[in-house]
Specification:
Elements (H helix, E strand, L loop, with lengths): L6 H8 L52 E3 L1 E7 L6 E9 L2 E8 L4 E6 L7 E7 L9 E4 L2 E6 L17 E6 L7 E6 L5 E2 L9 E7 L7 E6 L7 E6 L24 E3 L2 E5 L5 E5 L7 E6 L13 E5 L4 E5 L13 E5 L7 E5 L41 E5 L5 E5 L7 E7 L19 E6 L4 E6 L4 E6 L2
Antiparallel strand pairs: 1-25, 2-28, 3-4, 4-5, 5-6, 7-8, 8-9, 9-10, 11-12, 12-13, 13-14, 15-16, 16-17, 17-18, 19-20, 20-21, 21-22, 23-24, 24-25, 26-27, 27-28
Length: 463
Amino acid sequence: MCGFCDRRSFLGFTAAGFTSAVLGKEATAQQPSQAVDQPTILNRSYLQETPQRNHFSRSFKRQTEPIAQNVQTIGYCDMAGKPAFKLSIREHQGRWYLFTGHFWHSGWSIVDVTDPAKPEVAKFLPGPKNTWTLQMELSGNTMVTALEQIFPNFGGRQQQPFDEGALLWDLRDPVNPKRLGQFRTGGTGTHRNFYAGGRYMHLAAGMPGYEGNIYVIVDISNPAKPREAGRWWVPGQHKAGGEKPSAMHVSHHGPAYVVGNIAYLAYGAAGIVVLDISDVSKPKQIGRLPFSPPFHSRFGIHSVLPLPEQGIAYVNSEDVSYGGGAAAHASIVDIRDPANPFLLSMLPRPVPPEGYGYSDFSEKGGWQGPHNINHLQHNPDVQKQGDLLYLTYFNAGLRIFDVSKPRLPQEVGYFIPPDPEKRFGPMPEERLVVQTEDVLVDRRGYIYISHKNQGVWILKYQT
């Protein structure tokens, strides 16, 4: 018996509990032929995604100061009044630059964080109108920025023009990026993408004729003329091809995380999907682990960070029901055999500190539950994943877990920013509470966290 458990016994035990499979084991690119498994349970409450707010506390008192355990505040950047979302970082000739997408302002910012106590916005690159510029990714001298149609509840004007796809930039001068080219989907654009250098970028793309986003591999060997090299989708997504959706909320949230010839996909209600992409023109499914049910369905898998050298992956969902639907999760998965991943443990749910005013963060308001981890492990300027896992939790701020024992993760620190003073956009609805979005830890040990309605906090873990 191995150090974790007997794999075959575990898989046999859990097969009935996870029978809501959304795709067959050997679904392949372009012509998926395997029949899609159907849920065998009658209770479909895990599909409930309508915002529920009747569990909020009747009284609300704005948190005016940060609350922290084992976390020190180093600095704060107001982002010139433009709240940031996704983050990446690069050291160049001794200076450190934080790159960000934005929630409510189309474009991207470059922040000089060489002195993390005194961050300064060095450049803002304006983006196209009525277009989401939430997500960005970089490797070496190349940056990839996503363009996407804005959701209506985030202020998108659905009848007006928008830009879409992914832009490629030259970062040889990191404060003055030069645009190289653009890949267009012809649909709604791309959400969360992956690029770790080399010939291919990996997109979560809203392609015409499909229900939800699918996985698209793009050849950027000529960055002025990027071209599609391959695609993969869950059977039932290709409505234009005559397929009928087999389940709700099946969509590739992204990013795909690629290690060698294996791609790990965060695929919403379809769970974790593992693909062999040794032939990029024909990605082939080799493994999968569903989570919905019992967990919520929409964004049932939001992120997956595989660490094959450790034999594990960190995964989590994103709950957009304001805590009123089926449970969210942050989990550790055994991936020593990519064809047979299985659940090892779940991270403990954050508990409000004594005297906080709420017994459960779901009473506070806003979105709650896990969102993003220190994900960019391919970036040499990002701290490598060790015994500490950094994870944002919307209205519970940043949470830090000791994961040295994969079967027994424990929370060892947190940082809850004050609630915002000003609303920049329509989310969260109703109560204006903190919504911590992304986290990045650089190799110096500085932690950066972004938010819907405030700037970037710069922190450091201390014991």
